[in-house]
């Protein structure tokens, strides 16, 4: 019960940090004490936080390396755009269309997650990373050659060109092949991003602390031991993978409706690596760390834009320093000592070990 209370307290602290950050940013927006550059970054920050938390479910909690997370994001983005634009006349309310777009983005990404996960999750280690990378590129190439339009007769889809869709004169092209989605009505908002972060955190943290979450962590720690006590390896690995894909699809739908145009090339290998960097630098298995890392590393390049010639150099140095600090036992010891002095109390070795074990699955 003591560990349960500690876990709940830690989770509610995470919720509180997110809520406090939202209130502060809303206050800055209302009082006009925020730059336009940072204001434009708020929705991408929310999206990348959701992406980092969802990927941490696979990389940190399940213990598998996935390099195709941007593929699920792209599926959610384009399916959300299609839903929003095709229902523009039937449902005038932008809020309702946004909710429907996010829901459909989650469902389509989950379906793709099942199709990808069933064959892929039989692999391990480097093979799993390579195949997920390949599936991410396949999804991107499919979307690059996708044409979608809408007219009075409904949706029209083609993989050849826009003319072969056979739309009427009143038809409107939504996705135009390599050009991507065009003429998108922007519906995303910072409030919607905040709600999406809270939904992602509630789903992820409740899963991690549930019976299924303990089974997933058992698979991560020792696959053979977990299988020997009757845990269905395929079931729980697929569960974590599909939930992660669905959360990425939700984030992608919000991301897609934040721009008037969006091309499939945006969701390439580099985007998957960027999200993986958020997870690694925030701490593998550390949900709160993923939130902080995604926020800082999204804002940092914009903050350094004034130093145009040295911006990426400073960014790279910061990444290296963070990696050294988070993976160096001596430096981590100094940080723990400083934290102990700040809190004014030292933990006994047993409590510290117990907390360490709990934090690994945070």
Range of helix content: over 70%
Largest sheet data: 3 strands, antiparallel
- CATH topology value: ABC transporter involved in vitamin B12 uptake, BtuC
Order of helices and strands: HHHHHEEEHHHHHHHHH
CATH class group: Mainly Alpha
- Structural class call reads mainly alpha
Number of helices: 14
How big is the Rg?
22 Å
Count of domains: 1
Mean pLDDT, to the nearest integer, reads: 84
In short:
The protein is mainly alpha-helical. It is 71% helix and 4% strand.
Describe this structure in words.
The protein has 362 residues and is mostly helical. The protein has 14 helices and 3 strands. β1 and β2 form a beta hairpin. It has a 3-stranded antiparallel sheet with strand order 2-1-3, covered by helices on one side. It is globular. 37% of the residues are buried. It is 71% helix and 4% strand. α2 packs parallel to α6 and α4 packs antiparallel against α9. The chain has one domain: ABC transporter involved in vitamin B12 uptake, BtuC (Orthogonal Bundle).
Summary tags:
single chain, 362 residues, mainly alpha, ABC transporter involved in vitamin B12 uptake, BtuC, 3-stranded antiparallel β-sheet, 14 helices, 71% helix, globular, disordered C terminus
Can you lay out the helices and strands and say which pair or pack?
Elements: H1 2-30, H2 36-62, H3 69-86, H4 94-120, H5 125-144, E1 147-151, E2 154-158, E3 172-176, H6 190-208, H7 211-221, H8 223-228, H9 233-256, H10 269-282, H11 287-303, H12 311-327, H13 329-343, H14 349-360
Antiparallel strand pairs: 1-2, 1-3
């Amino acid at each position: 019960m003591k560990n349960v209370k500690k876990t709940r307290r830690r989770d509610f602290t995470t919720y509180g940090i997110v809520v406090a950050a939202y209130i502060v940013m809303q206050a800055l927006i209302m009082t006009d004490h925020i730059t336009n550059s940072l204001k434009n970054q708020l929705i991408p920050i929310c999206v990348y936080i959701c992406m980092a938390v969802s990927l941490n479910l696979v990389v940190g909690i399940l213990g598998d390396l996935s390099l195709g997370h941007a593929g699920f994001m792209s599926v959610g983005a384009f399916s959300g755009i299609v839903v929003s634009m095709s229902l523009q006349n039937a449902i005038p309310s932008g809020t309702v269309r946004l909710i429907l777009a996010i829901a459909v983005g989650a469902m389509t990404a989950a379906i793709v997650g099942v199709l990808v996960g069933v064959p892929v999750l039989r692999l391990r280690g480097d093979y799993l990373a390579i195949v997920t990378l390949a599936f991410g590129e396949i999804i991107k190439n499919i979307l690059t050659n996708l044409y979608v339009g809408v007219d009075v007769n409904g949706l029209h889809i083609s993989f050849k060109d826009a003319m072969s869709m056979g739309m009427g004169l009143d038809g409107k092209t939504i996705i135009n092949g390599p050009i991507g989605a065009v003429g998108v009505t922007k519906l995303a908002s910072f409030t919607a991003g905040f709600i999406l972060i809270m939904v992602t955190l509630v789903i992820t943290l409740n899963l991690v602390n549930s019976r299924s979450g303990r089974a997933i962590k058992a698979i991560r720690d020792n696959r053979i031991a977990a299988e020997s006590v009757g845990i269905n390896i395929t079931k729980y690995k697929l569960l974590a993978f599909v939930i992660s894909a669905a959360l990425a699809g939700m984030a992608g739908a919000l991301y897609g409706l934040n721009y008037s145009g969006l091309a499939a090339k945006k969701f390439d290998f580099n985007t998957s690596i960027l999200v993986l960097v958020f997870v690694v630098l925030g701490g593998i298995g550390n949900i709160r760390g993923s939130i902080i890392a995604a926020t800082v590393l999204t804002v940092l390049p914009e903050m350094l834009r004034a130093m145009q010639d040295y911006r990426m150099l400073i960014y790279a140095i910061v990444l290296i320093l963070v990696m050294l600090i988070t993976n160096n036992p001596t430096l981590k010891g100094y940080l723990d000592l400083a934290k102990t002095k700040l809190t004014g109390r030292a933990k006994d070795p047993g409590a510290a070990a117990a907390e360490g074990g709990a934090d690994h699955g945070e």
